[in-house]
Amino acid sequence: MKITDVKLRFAKHYLFVQVYTDAGIVGLGEAGNWGYLQATAAAIEKFADYLIGKDPFRIEDFNQNFLRSVYFRGSVIMSAISAIDIALWDIKGKALSVPVYELLGGKTRDKVRVYASVMHITEDKNELAAQYQQLQQMGFTAAKIFCNGPTSSSDGKGEFFSSRIEREVEKVRVCREAVGPDFDFILEVHRGMTLPEAVAFGRAVEPYRPMVLEDPVPPDNVDTMAEVASKIGVPIATGERAIDLRECEVLMSRHACQYIRPDVCAVGGITTSKKIAALAEAHDVLVIPHNPLGPVSTAACLQICASIPNLGIQELPGFCLNGAEDKMVKEPLRYENGCMLIPDAPGIGVELADDAEELYPAKERGSNAARRAFDGAVKDW
Length: 381
Known about the structure:
Blueprint: E1 3-11, E2 14-21, E3 26-31, H1 37-51, H2 59-68, H3 75-95, H4 100-103, E4 111-117, H5 125-137, E5 142-146, H6 161-179, E6 184-188, H7 195-204, E7 212-214, H8 222-231, E8 236-238, H9 245-253, E9 259-260, H10 269-282, E10 286-287, H11 295-307, E11 314-317, E12 335-336, E13 339-341, H12 356-359, E14 371-372, E15 378-379
Parallel strand pairs: 4-11, 5-6, 6-7, 7-8, 8-9, 9-10
Antiparallel strand pairs: 1-2, 2-3, 4-13, 12-13, 14-15
InterPro entries: DgoD-like, Enolase-like_C_sf, Enolase-like_N, Enolase_C-like, Mandel_Rmase/mucon_lact_enz_CS, Mandelate_racemase_C, Mandelate_racemase_N_dom
GO molecular function: galactonate dehydratase activity; metal ion binding
Domain Mandelate racemase/muconate lactonizing enzyme C-terminal: 125-235
């Protein structure tokens, strides 16, 4: 079997890749660099020239080749590698008539617990409580709470140290009282706090038993993240911006997190994500795959979740709640009682709909305009 063509498909704010073979098998992948899709597409097209005519089963070799073939790496290159890698695993599973998880060691579980990755931003306590009660009624047993400050503030109210901590802790208190104890919270700080803020918030929020404090500070300085982890009692999750196996290893070896968050569409595909999960197992760290993208990303994550022993929980993006993206694929992934069911179809388990581009017109997410504080200074996002 040989690779004959590589095609790109844009839908919504997603970039999908289809790898064709002379056996009639087509593999499907997704790129993770959603802010720079055109640049990522150009990298995939350059890689395609190398792939044509080659054996699609040589997944590890291709992954290493594209990583090491030139000096330049970074998020664009790694997202391109990731998309191709996922598509090649899809081809291999289809060719052997097995789900990808069978090629990764087989099932370690029958379903995958997920949390609703919603980005609710409201100052109304009653509305906030109702939103999380609704998620609970939908069967979710865990959800994200967005704790990254007010969307805007002309006078600085809510951005000063004391009011910032009070504001975010109050959100968690309201949500805990709304859903009771049998519900887990992932507190999404989105890299939006300073070291002092993160420590103060982490300590103050402990009585409400959050499962995870996600990216409390920017991840650029591993020692800063490790210092936060050493001073609070809430487990930290980070790693979603990592674009290399070694970045994740350093985070874990420095005890900067209790949960690692590889992004299968950005860190090097299924190949690298599986390695990161193995490193995490050796460090007694649990895995929460980052999944802010489309159905192909979710399907690839499920294959990894199905085959590793140290899964924490799986992110389910708010974009696809209530079936909003079901028509993007021929057969939607199935959610049931707070869990995603693991597809048993060969490959990664999903096929892009023929009219996905028409149903979900391309619209790139994000912009070049940074978020700013009340005084005009740039803030992390």
